[in-house]
Each structure stands twice: as C-alpha cells, then as structure tokens.
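Hey,
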Amino acid sequence: MITTAVHTVAPGISLHCRVAGPPGAPTLLFLHGFPEGAFVWDALLTHFSLPENGGYCCVAPWLRGFGPSSAPADARDYRPKHLVQDILGIIQAESPGAPLAALVAHDWGGAVAWNLANQFPQHIQRLAIINSPHPGTFLRELQHSAAQREASAYMNFLVRPDAPALLAENDFRRLWPFFQGPDGQWPAWMDEPTRNQYRAVWGAGLQGGCNYYRASPLRPPLGDDPGANAVTLPREMLTVDVPTWVLWALDDIALCPGLIDGLGDYIPRLTLDKVPGASHWIIHEQPERVIAGLQAHLLRNE
C-alpha cells in the first residue's frame, strides 16, 4: 500500500512523498522529472516493497516545485545545491544512519542524482539512472552536437517568463505532444486516468518545473544567451564512483544516443543497458523492463 509522508528539508521547504514498504528497511529513493510527478514510480514502489522482492522501504518525493511540495517562486531556489540538499534531507528522514540501497532517477531527477552521487557518495550504495544525461556528456553534446542542440531547443521556450501560462492554456495543449507519437496518437499507457494524474500535477502549477530550466545554464545557445557554451565543468564535479546502472531508451527524441558515448570515462563501475524502440517515457511504456533491470542491479556483485 502506498501512503504519504511529508518532510521539512530546508527552512520553508517541505517535500511530500509517496511511500511503500516497512520503515527501517533498506531504502530505495526514486526521483521523477519534468513534467512528471512522484506517481510515475507507483509500480516500482509496489513491486520492491513486497517481501518477495526485497521488502524495501520505497520513497518517491514530489520534487521541489512539483505537486503538493513547496514551490518557491525564485529560479535561484532551484540551483543544484538546493535540490541536492532537499534529497539529503529525505535520506536523513527515511534512512537515518544508513546509506540508501539505491537512488533511482529519471529526467530532471537524474540531474539531481548525478550531482548527489558525485558530492555525497557515502549516502548511496548504488545509483540507477533512466534517460537522464550525465552532466559531462550533456555539456559536450550541447557544445558540439547540432543534433542535440536541436533536440534541446525546447529548453529555450521553457525559460521564457510566459512559459508557465502558455503551457497551461487550453487544457495544456502544448504539453500533451511531449507524450504523443509522431502520428499524434496517444500511446497505449496514456489512458484517461493517467492523463488526469498529469492534469492534476500541471494544475498545481508549472512555474516550479520551468524554474529548473531557468536555474541551469545547460541549454542550447540562443541570441545573446551563450547557454552551455559559457560553461566549464571541472573533472572532479563529474566522476561517480558508486556502482551505476544506466537504462537508456534509444528512441528518446529529446536526448540523443550520443549522450551515452563516453559514460565510462566518468563512471568506473558502469552497467549500460540500451533499449531500442523505447522512448523517454520508458517507465510508463515498459515498467516490467525497468523493474527487471533495477532488480538485477540491486543483486549485482560489485
């Protein structure tokens, strides 16, 4: 059964979490992306909380700016240092005195997870990333790949001051195409109950989600904004030493396959799983594939 917990992680900042499994058990922490919510992990929370599948304490917070969690208005409050501290607060509350069994993350949740794994590896035993670019390869591709700059051009819309209002117009008509196929058809997993879950997330406000993009310079250059061209990341900010599983859906239209080239240069203990025919929304499309891969990662001898 999935329940709710609320944790104050910083002054004036509380994160609501979806929780399943026995308190005090080894903890799996799941981080969602944009324009998602914590509910995308429900199948995994249910599976991994069962005794026969490990009996983990499974926690999926609504990230700062999303759903019922606190959503400060200032984009500066979404800089990586604040987002990482939020998750450290959840770890302290849900796994006191012990590292996470695994930190699992998708999309923007992955951006937070990469940073946390680099800066605070003592708090996690394993890292699992699903279609979220490593900052080193993302910077490289934004600077040198025309294909990735084109695929990421939507970021320059999301940083506009009017983006939240425009995204909310006419039943969020600009957001639904993120999920639809090239033919404009709904994928099988996007049924009406799921669409209503997304409507509820977006109806709670889109300013916070857009602030993630505003707070980051990792976007294509546009006009007077140099974007990623003005960024240099030192090597010590990019290395991840914990055992890491990366699941990469190869038909992601926003994240080109070049982003997984050279990952081993930053992650000595890397397992890379490539999935042809799957999109950015693989958690919805193939939950069994995601569950099986994570189960294998948790059992892998490192």
